[in-house]
Design goal:
Number of strands: 0
Structural class: mainly alpha
Order of helices and strands: HHHHHHHHHHHH
Helix content: over 70%
Oligomer: single chain
Radius of gyration: 18 Å
Shape: globular
Number of helices: 12
């Protein structure tokens, strides 16, 4: 029965990813917490789940020429070492065995869920402002410091993704759309997905080495989600995406408020 539940959870999240392009850690980690898994296990398992599921999308975008590898390199130069440093900082045995470890992870998750929900609400505005209404001096500032801003963004993503499993998705794409306002949206999305693969893989490995990844759970989630992602992608033109994304935004905002304000892991 538990196996069926996990496969169904994978299928549900996979279908949401296929239709809206959003889901991943934003839905999977809270779902695993709902199933009773400790925060480190939920986050660690989801990070490796994300690395595997996003790898196929990254390959497809690469073949279509939709990945700017210079952006991916700059992000990874910031995010991957940061993920390793974060794991080094939280790997102290006394801290990992204390209630504060779980509370830190769930609070980080809550913050990132709220940020993701806000970005989903205003994502079109971000792009419009970046393209049409950006003051010339700000545009020049961003263009001159684009590489440094991208690298710095990678550092932020390394912290966020490692502590919450959320960040290398809608959050990253929205910031990239602002920094690279003249780049095609599909290329930004492809680059974001390509960068998410090494980041989530390295961050997930840290949890795996610490014993916080449930491999059977991971396999069950993949069995359910991989076909569902493909099905969701095929049906994306026939399903009211805006309605589903609005519902998803409300869910993420509610979960984010819960984990930041009301929930404590003991």
């Amino acid at each position: 029965m538990e196996l069926i539940l996990h496969i169904s959870a994978g299928a549900l999240v996979g279908f949401a990813i296929g239709i809206t392009g959003v889901g991943g850690g934003s839905l999977m980690t809270p779902l695993l917490l709902l199933f009773g898994y400790p925060a480190p296990v939920a986050i660690g398992t989801d990070l490796l789940y994300a690395a595997i599921t996003k790898a196929g999308g990254a390959l497809s975008h690469h073949r279509a020429g939709n990945v700017d590898w210079s952006i991916v390199r700059l992000l990874a130069l910031g995010s991957v070492p940061t993920a390793i440093l974060v794991h080094a900082a939280i790997s102290q045995t006394t801290f990992q065995q204390s209630p504060g470890f779980g509370e830190l992870l769930t609070f980080s998750l809550g913050i990132m869920l709220i940020v993701t929900a806000i970005i989903l609400i205003f994502k079109n505005k971000f792009r419009e402002k970046a393209v049409d209404n950006k003051p010339p001096f700000l545009m020049n500032f961003i263009q001159r410091r684009r590489s440094g801003l991208t690298f710095s963004m990678g550092i932020v993503l390394g912290v966020c993704a490692t502590l919450s499993s959320v960040g290398a998705g809608a959050f990253a794409a929205a910031i990239l759309l602002t920094i690279y306002s003249q780049t095609r949206t599909v290329q930004i999305i492809g680059s974001d997905i390509a960068h998410a693969v090494p980041l989530t893989f390295i961050a997930g490995l840290g949890y795996l080495f610490a014993g916080y990844v449930d491999l059977m759970l991971l396999l069950s989630l993949l069995v359910g989600s991989l076909p569902a992602i493909a099905l969701g992608s095929l049906l994306s033109d026939r399903v009211p995406e805006k309605t589903l994304q609005s519902l998803l935004t409300v869910i993420l905002l509610g979960l984010g408020l819960y984990y930041t304000m009301f929930n404590k892991i003991h």
